[in-house]
Amino acid sequence: MIKEIYFSGFRNLKDKRVKLSRGFNLIYGQNAQGKTSFMEAIYFASTGRSFRTKKNNEMIKYTENDAKVFVKLENTTNYAINLFKKEKKYYKNGDRIKYVDYIGDILAISFIPEDVELVMGNPSIRRGFFNYEISQINKEYLHLIVDYEKILKSRNRFLKEKKHKNELYEIYNEKYIDLCSKILKIRKEYVDELNRYLDNNYKTLFNEEHSLKLTYENFLNMEDVYDIDKNREKISELLKNKEIYDIQLGYSNYGIHKDEYIFNLNGKNSRHYSSQGEKKSIVFILKISEVELIEKKVNKKPVFLMDDIASFFDNFRKNQIIHYFLEKEIQCFLTSTEDLKIVGKKFDVDGGMVNEEY
Ligand SMILES: Nc1ncnc2c1ncn2[C@@H]1O[C@H](COP(=O)(O)OP(=O)(O)OP(=O)(O)O)[C@@H](O)[C@H]1O
């Protein structure tokens, strides 16, 4: 639970220290006042990332050279980030730490209108999303992905330069196979775990006659990828059989960077068949299912941040969602241009000023 936040030089927000509620936090105000920026500051301080940009300078106030965010947890541990145009410095209780050691302490799940791209967009969006979400609770996976990206780049360079007979290429290839084998297993187990929650949550919150399932379609086309040694064998075989394609095209055509995750609503791929409302509902269910998965796996309650709730859902769905959070006792942050009547703390954001109301 995040007890308070301090921000300075962040977007259009006026520098301020703010105390947060352990339950609901409604961030209320007219358009373009700074509601999303306030929520973004909380998410950024929690995870070291933004949910709307990858560029540091977009988060730094136009007139400043750097921004700072600082959060204090209920157990008094504090985390801070000093954000510069080309660098981020992470701190825990005043000591400088690395990003990989920063993430995972405070777990946060965000839900913003653009997230519907998770269903509608191309596979790389889903891969990027699940990479990050799995990394939040599994540091080993984070390291595997970082290594994989490096090895993939080198392997591609060798292929492009037709150096596939080179001894070093063989070493990269072995590592490549090993990383793929391990990543496949972790991805599959994560999807299995998520599926324990998805369908039930969709039925309970939105429509009891619908069924929701996430499928993991990996580049090996194999359902059972739980055995790393078996994966290794299958991948070696596949790469050998298809080596000619890799050499001809000059890059790696087979690997976990080609995997796909598919949301199926009533057995149909939602990317092609679901309505806009259903797509939003699927993403929301995905996010709350992750909250439950995290709680079970690491025994921590993530904070939940939801942008623009009023424009997203009709009244029935809005009420269902609010009840859900109340029941689960999750710390959540909702932005809205409507003054929702909910029990918790209200922040009125006006011209970048965050005012606490009781
Ligand atoms: N780096 C920055 N420095 C200063 N102002 C910025 C920066 N980035 C964005 N802004 C401005 O901050 C204002 C608030 O943006 P924000 O997205 O937080 O508004 P909002 O209250 O969530 O609005 P809406 O309800 O329309 O989504 C906007 O006018 C935006 O142009």
From TrEMBL:
Its main location: cytoplasm. The keyword Lyase does not apply. Residues 1-338 form the RecF/RecN/SMC N-terminal domain. PROSITE patterns: RECF_1 (PS00617). Coiled coil: none annotated. The keyword ATP-binding applies. GO terms for molecular function: ATP binding; single-stranded DNA binding. Pfam families: SMC_N. InterPro entries: DNA-binding_RecF, DNA-binding_RecF_CS, P-loop_NTPase, RecF/RecN/SMC_N, RecF_2. Keywords: ATP-binding, Cytoplasm, DNA damage, DNA repair, DNA replication, DNA-binding, Nucleotide-binding, SOS response. ATP binds at G29, Q30, N31, A32, Q33, G34, K35, T36. It is found in: Cytoplasm. One of its GO terms (cellular component) is cytoplasm. One of its GO terms (biological process) is double-strand break repair. Belongs to the RecF family. The RecF protein is involved in DNA metabolism; it is required for DNA replication and normal SOS inducibility. RecF binds preferentially to single-stranded, linear DNA. It also seems to bind ATP. PANTHER family: DNA REPLICATION AND REPAIR PROTEIN RECF. This is DNA replication and repair protein RecF. It comes from Streptobacillus felis. The lineage of its organism: Bacteria, Fusobacteriati, Fusobacteriota, Fusobacteriia, Fusobacteriales.
